[in-house]
Each structure stands twice: as C-alpha cells, then as structure tokens.
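Our platform keeps sequence and structure together, in a single record for each protein. Such a record has a labelled line for the sequence and another for the backbone structure tokens. This encoding replaces a full spatial description with a residue-level series of whole-number codes. Below, we set out a record of this kind in full and without editing:
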Amino acid sequence: DSDLSMRTLSTPSPALIFPPNSHGFQNGRGSSTSSSSVTGETVAMVHSPPPTRLTHPLIRLAAKHQKEQANIDRLPDHSMIQIFSFLPTNQLCRCARVCRRWYNLAWDPRLWRTIRLTGETINVDRALKVLTRRLCQDTPNVCLMLETVIVSGCRRLTDRGLYTIAQCCPELRRLEVSGCYNISNEAVFDVVSLCPNLEHLDVSGCSKVTCISLTREASIKLSPLHGKQISIRYLDMTDCFVLEDEGLHTIAAHCTQLTHLYLRRCVRITDEGLRYLMIYCTSIKELSVSDCRFVSDFGMREIAKLESRLRYLSIAHCGRITDVGIRYIAKYCSKLRYLNARGCEGITDHGVEYLAKNCTKLKSLDIGKCPLVSDTGLEFLALNCFNLKRLSLKSCESITGQGLQIVAANCFDLQMLNVQDCDVSVDALRFVKRHCKRCIIEHTNPAFF
C-alpha cells in the first residue's frame, strides 16, 4: 500500500503558467510546493498533486467547515468538467491545485483537446514541453487527444516549441501562432510533415515564414511529392512580408486543398503568384490580397478562374485594380457574397453597375475611398442586390443623400451602413433608419443621433 501511495504522490501535477514574480502554492506546513520561478518572466512549473489528507486536527476542522460552505463541491463531475471547459489553459492548471478531486477532473482528456496560451512574457517553449509531457503519460511520447494549439501573440515562442508540438501531437488539426515572429520555415516544415491531419494554420505576422511545403527546399523547383499532399484548408499568412511569388508557387503545389487563403499585406506578391495559385488551388472560396500593391487587373483575371466557387474576395487598397478587373470577377464569379474593394480608386460607377447586375446575391460590399463612385452606382446596387446587408461608403466624396435613400427603399435587410466622411444630410440618414430598422449607421454628422 505504501508503494502505491508513493507512486500516486509522485505523479506529475499540471503545468502551471505563472505571471512574473508569482509565488508557489503553500502547503499546510508553510513550505512552497513549487520550484523557484525565474525573475521577470513567466515559466511553466511542475507540482505534486494536493495531499489526500490533512493531519493536524485544527486544519481538519477548518477544512471541514470550509467544505460545508463550498457549494461548488456538490456539483457532479460532468458539471465540473463542463465549467472547466470554458477556462484557458493556465487557469485550468491552477484549478488542478485546489484539491485531489479537482486535480483528477482538470486532467480529464476531454479538456485537453485544446491548448491556449497568450502573453508576451510567457516561456511558451517550456510550457508546451511540460504540458505535452503530462498529456503523454498514458501514451508515451504521443499525445492523441490534442487537436488545437493556439499560442497567438507569444513572442517567445521559437522553433523548439513547434518541434515539441510536431513530435508529440500527430492528431493536430489546428495551429495558430500569429504574431510569433521567431519561428522559421524549418519548424513549420516539421509541423506539416508530422501532423498529416492539420487543416487550419495561422502564421500571420510570422515574418520569417516564406513557405509551407513538404520539402525543405523552399524553391520553385519542386521535388517529387510521391502523391503526398498537405491537408491544410485554411491558411492565414497575413503580414508575412517576405513571401514572394516563388514561395506562393510552392505553397500552392503542396496545399492543393486550400479553401481559405489570406495574404493581406504580402507586399511582394504579384499577378504571377496568383497565376501559380490558380493552377493548383481550384477550390478556394475565400481569398484576400488586400494591400498587395502589385496585384492588378491581370491578377483579377486569374482569380476569376475560380468562377462560382469564390464567395469572399478582398482587394482593398490594390491601387492597380480598375473597372476591368471588377468586370472579370463579376462575369465569372456570379455567386460572390463579399467584396472589399476599399481604396481601389480606379473603380467607377461602370464597375459597380457590372458587379450589381451579375453578382445579385451580394451581401457585403465595401467601396469606401472610391471617389469615382456616385449615386448612379448606388442606384444599380439598390435595383439588383436586394440581399445586401452591409455597405461601406466611407469617404466616398460623390455620394449624396439621394443615393442613400434609393438604397434604403430597396434593401430592407440592410444591417450596417458606413457613411463616415460623406456629405449626406440628416434627413437622408433618418430616411435610412426609418426603412431599415435593424441598420446600424456609422456616420460623422453630429446632428444625427
């Protein structure tokens, strides 16, 4: 019995994520059960589970009195697990230190399908190592239950942390490391190679990442894949500034199942990169190339090859796109639901007319900062796009109250209207509010409230 008791007490406790200069949990004798924390940083700590019994009579009496007052302890296990499921990883680890029952409940496998860590000071590499080691106890070196890892904004995450995930979590389906600018192509290569079920990857803001592939050579000369492909469907590479056309070619060739791709502010991407993308990734439903200043009407011609599969397109601040590019999209992508063309100053009423007549199921449109769009364009929208729910006309200098009234009289389902910095009267805004009762109006007219 004593051997069994000793084995139980030596079981590693949860990995606790402490803020800077925090102190460990004090046991009944006043000594700390945690190892000393590193000054000025957040680290992952290992603790023993809470003791099974308290020896001192006064302590037992106090504990008994406290237990009688703790209504939460009367809840059944399944209710406690449901409550714990709403806690972030660090708080779940803290709950495991309360008592032995909470310790056992906190490590229920159903609670560890997701690891979520945030914070600039947290030592993410060590936290991931400790957590995966604890989760691999029943299946040595393999964590079968973990499917999602979110460590967004953790600037101290390095390749070492991603290596830990890649080696221990073969069932990983979702990985978000946005804003972790210390990771490189090598670590991403390991993850996509060792986690064949990965479907959702967010590396936005990771400026060192230039490629997603199954080959270590991130070049345009692709090595044979022998039928192997990456199963990623959702890829966010926003703010990956050094991504170029060659890297996009490699990504497209390896990730042929992509349905959602976001390349916001990938400023080196050109029309040639979009041509590569359309050769391999023919199932894309959502695409963003906002602030890609080298994308032009020729790129729109390539994107139009997606035809009716394309539902979401963002080309905001792509100054080289004109009515010609809009006509390509409108002609072939008739099922488009969302279009963000803010800041595309080459778009006029003619482009809006062609879009309205061909994409009649459009629900959201942003043509803010398009000075050549006027009330005439709004009239075409109002007479064709009856399902319009969101419309942004911010800083459209040629828009007046007359155009807004036509929209409000025909688009009854309008839920959001942005007319900031537009010369529209109070009467026009009141007309919109009267006809579109659920519409939230964003404006800069101090007389309207």
Observations:
- Confidence is low (pLDDT under 50) at residues 1-16, 18-46, 218-227.
- Residues 296-448 form a domain with the Leucine-rich repeat, LRR (right-handed beta-alpha superhelix) fold (CATH 3.80.10.10).
- Residues 196 and 231 are 7 Å apart (CA to CA).
- Residues 57-69 form the longest helix (13 residues).
